[in-house]
Amino acid sequence: SEVATMMDVPTTKVISTCMSLGIMVTMNQRLDAETLSIVADEFGYEVDFVTSDLEESIEDIVDNPEDLVVRAPIVTVMGHVDHGKTSLLDYIREENVIAGESGGITQHIGAYGVQLENGQKIAFLDTPGHEAFTAMRARGAQVTDLAIIVIAADDDVMPQTKEAISHAQAAGVPIIFAINKVDKPTANPDKIKEKLAAMNLLVEDWGGKIQSHDISAKTGLGVKELLEKVLLEAEILELKANPKRSASGTVVEAFLDKGRGYVSTILVQTGTLRIGDYVLAGKNSGKIKAMQDERGNNVKEAGPSTPISILGLDGAPQAGDKFNVLEDEREAKDIAAKRAQLHREQSVRTQRHITLDEIGRRIALGDFKELNIILKGDVDGSVEALTDSFQKLSTEEIHINIIHKAVGAITESDVLLASASDAIIVGFNVRPAGNARAVADKEEIDIRTYSIIYDAINDLKDAMEGMLSPVM
Ligand code: GDP
């Protein structure tokens, strides 16, 4: 109703416009930014987004280029189950203690930093797997700079390996392969590289650009060299941050500790965080009372790419929440309260993901250029056939992107990827498994299942032309 008043049109018209976009709203409901733009456009208005007075104080500071310094890369380890993700993270954690540092990494705080002999640093997210990675991304947090994908050389490029690759690619995060377990007599790293090449992923040994290294997470063979390659890749990304500004970053995990209160692990992405700073993290706030690194040391400040656990927040923010440092406590509290209120009002989600029914309209409105699809099928043949046919439907107006395709049921991880990348899921002779349907309903992800290839192609074609008859 606020929007209607601003545009001087009846509220019912705004509601019916929303409905024509497939969004059921009530008078008092808030619209997300994208819907607002589309609705305003329908009535000939353009939306200019300004931050509210309160949120303005956390508006992005424009860094002076002279203040920017190189920061350490933040790395996530992914791969198929049992291929050695945890072993690799453990090995790195145990072996790479900073020279002269008392004691190793003693605390599991969700992330840790290591320093190589040459003084260069790398920060690792200690929750391995692409599910955690994509769940953070679905919450709008882009933390990872590089992904190490672990593949066991005595096994194969497995379904979850392919998933991890798709998830990293969909996020635009460069990949480095760690071909693991080369200490085993049955290991065959070349076979793995050949399989990757067949998937159009050419590693350096094969004349390609993707870095890979043969390692053993058990004996430590090659791990140092792998980390050197990580740093090399990071150099290309020219990762920089300004340590002089007030800190901001992302929450990695948070919990209530009986003795200490709320403990949150955060990753400082830019600026420097100090004891006494007033922090706003998601819907929580507070003054930092103490900070500890992964070695259990009390520290007074933490610069860019540093994981740190903090004490002093008035609650446990969610993994993936952004945190910012504000001028004063009152301000931090007010914004946190306002956010909590907005969250309650919006408990009926209006943030919608794309559906097949909506595509035609969105294309017609001209604000929709790329359709992301996740494709799952019962056999390779059908997946490939559908990939080909779908891609051929790309037009000048809209590009069809198959961000992940695989044989197998539709999983929760597929739904998370769809949510993080705003994709629809197409299943051919497969159904959602386990929790996938429930999560899809919650995240409002469109899942379409077919048993006739022709139907799938026709539906997409019709949808793109805005001719799809809605499913009941
Ligand atoms: P994750 O599921 O990917 O985290 O895999 P884990 O790190 O738990 O490893 C699965 C199993 O493989 C464990 O029994 C490890 O001891 C073993 N493993 C991991 N890396 C190596 C390796 O480099 N060589 C050998 N021989 N075994 C390994």
UniProtKB/TrEMBL annotation:
One of the essential components for the initiation of protein synthesis. Protects formylmethionyl-tRNA from spontaneous hydrolysis and promotes its binding to the 30S ribosomal subunits. Also involved in the hydrolysis of GTP during the formation of the 70S ribosomal complex. GTP binds at residues 79-86, 126-130, 180-183. Residues 70-238 form the Tr-type G domain. It is found in: Cytoplasm. Belongs to the TRAFAC class translation factor GTPase superfamily. Classic translation factor GTPase family. IF-2 subfamily. This is Translation initiation factor IF-2. It comes from the Bacteria. The lineage of its organism: Bacteria, Pseudomonadati, Bacteroidota, Flavobacteriia, Flavobacteriales.
